[in-house]
Amino acid sequence: MSQTVRRALSIIEFFAERPRSLGEIAEHLGVHKSTALRLLQTLERGGFARSVDGRYTVGFRMVAIAHQAVEHLELHPVAHPHLVRLGDRYGHTVHLAQLVDDEIIYVAKVDGRGALKMRSRVGRAVNPHTSGVGKAILAHLDEPSRDRFLARLTYQRHTATSITTPAAFRQELARIAERGWAEDDGEFEDFVNCVAAPVRDARGRVVAAASITALRALAPLDQLREHLPQLTETCAAISRDLGWTGDQRP
Amino acid sequence: MSQTVRRALSIIEFFAERPRSLGEIAEHLGVHKSTALRLLQTLERGGFARSVDGRYTVGFRMVAIAHQAVEHLELHPVAHPHLVRLGDRYGHTVHLAQLVDDEIIYVAKVDGRGALKMRSRVGRAVNPHTSGVGKAILAHLDEPSRDRFLARLTYQRHTATSITTPAAFRQELARIAERGWAEDDGEFEDFVNCVAAPVRDARGRVVAAASITALRALAPLDQLREHLPQLTETCAAISRDLGWTGDQRP
DNA sequence: AGCAGTGGTTGCAACACTTGCAACAGATGG
DNA sequence: CCATCTGTTGCAAGTGTTGCAACCACTGCT
């Protein structure tokens, strides 16, 4: 492990929260300001940092690389048009989360027409046991992968409806697998609910899930459920674009 | 400047193009594979790299930070809903580019409904002399800033219609400033054209521009011009949301 | 005007950290 | 079963990093 690189990444994490001055950064790292400055200059020359009146923040080279990376995730370009159509139709927020190496990551997001924005962010990991997309994916995963995943969960409680025991969660997953879709009844934030459905790749394996999310005050769960036909059709369309013929369901 | 950090950034640039193996990366840097591995492990632990079957690529921590950074650019959250509405209306690609420290950067993009995607990418710098947004911003910039900008331009020719001399470009900017909007008549790629209009901040200064872009075969320039009222209205709406009252126009 | 508090810069000496090496485990594939 | 690859480790050598001190330039305050 490289100390210097670790420090550089730590700087990026630090000024990503909000722009930071040289002094703040040096103090945060616990190094002399000249040391911090030399690291910052290297980041700046690479486009990973930029300075604006004495404060440093994320550089645009880094933004461009990250966007490119998402577009390279084979799922994103295929799914995005479908998600936009779904978002248009109801004006609610639409998410797509993908299973990628033992993590479930938001890879696309279409903001709803409401004034409030969901706090989710492309690139961030999903909370598996308190999200519609997380449960939709886990419920349809093959046995060994699911077990591996579940073993790492902590079942932290976020709201009154959060599922907090392995047994209850397995039961919930079984129910989801049976009916083919999942919901989040305010399990992460009590004023937010959603419905979610799985997306399959060419071999029929569940690799992602899409969801329609809304404030409970704006669209309670029973109203979101009415959109399930369109949601599952959207997921089916994405799956078809990925090459799934509906033949296999392992 | 830190050699180690420079190497780390170079690695990121390298595997951003496409996933790379340890051997490739070591060779690219001209270092021993154990050295490359140690840097990679540091990046991986920070979430800036991830490995998938022996090849490395961009990690999700980096994606999340970059998305956060764009959302923190005060312009993006304000403008995005307006751009989406504009994109919906005609089905063409909509861009927003922002002037930020001597560069013009794409900060939002709404893909059109066509099968082809524009090659632009959020986070990337705009080509100022061959793009609608670039010209729209430059034309409405204050004298000193514009001169500083123009001094750095190279006027590279991309297509037959590219403007390649400072004199012709200044003339074009004057015309744009007068009528209040710009166009790109296949000046970067001959099969793509667009119309663009400026966005002003609370103090009346032009800080960004929005454009409607389409394949010439799908929507030639004279057809795009018909959308100008909606485009300028969109830009005015964004400007209003930024606090512009229309009083000042420096 | 003077002062205190910033950010930014530089040369240098000391040494901590990085580097290359070599050797090996383990996986993969012709 | 050999060839080739990634991944890992301990170690010696020395290069690159670090802290320091002193400095300039700028800002805002008194």
From TrEMBL, chains A, B:
- Coiled-coil annotation reads none
PROSITE patterns found in the cross-reference section: HTH_ICLR, ICLR_ED
Q: Does the keyword Transcription apply?
A: yes
Known SUPFAM superfamilies for this protein? GAF domain-like, Winged helix' DNA-binding domain
| InterPro entries recorded | ArsR-like_HTH, GAF-like_dom_sf, HTH_MetabolicPath_Reg, Tscrpt_reg_IclR_C, Tscrpt_reg_IclR_N, WH-like_DNA-bd_sf, WH_DNA-bd_sf
One Pfam match:
IclR_C
Q: Which CDD domains match?
A: HTH_ARSR
Residue span, HTH iclR-type domain? 2-60
Taking every annotated instance into account, which residue ranges of this chain make up the domain IclR-ED? Answer: 61-244
> What are the alphabetically sorted keywords of the record?
DNA-binding, Transcription, Transcription regulation
Q: What is this protein called?
A: IclR family transcriptional regulator
Source species = Plantactinospora alkalitolerans
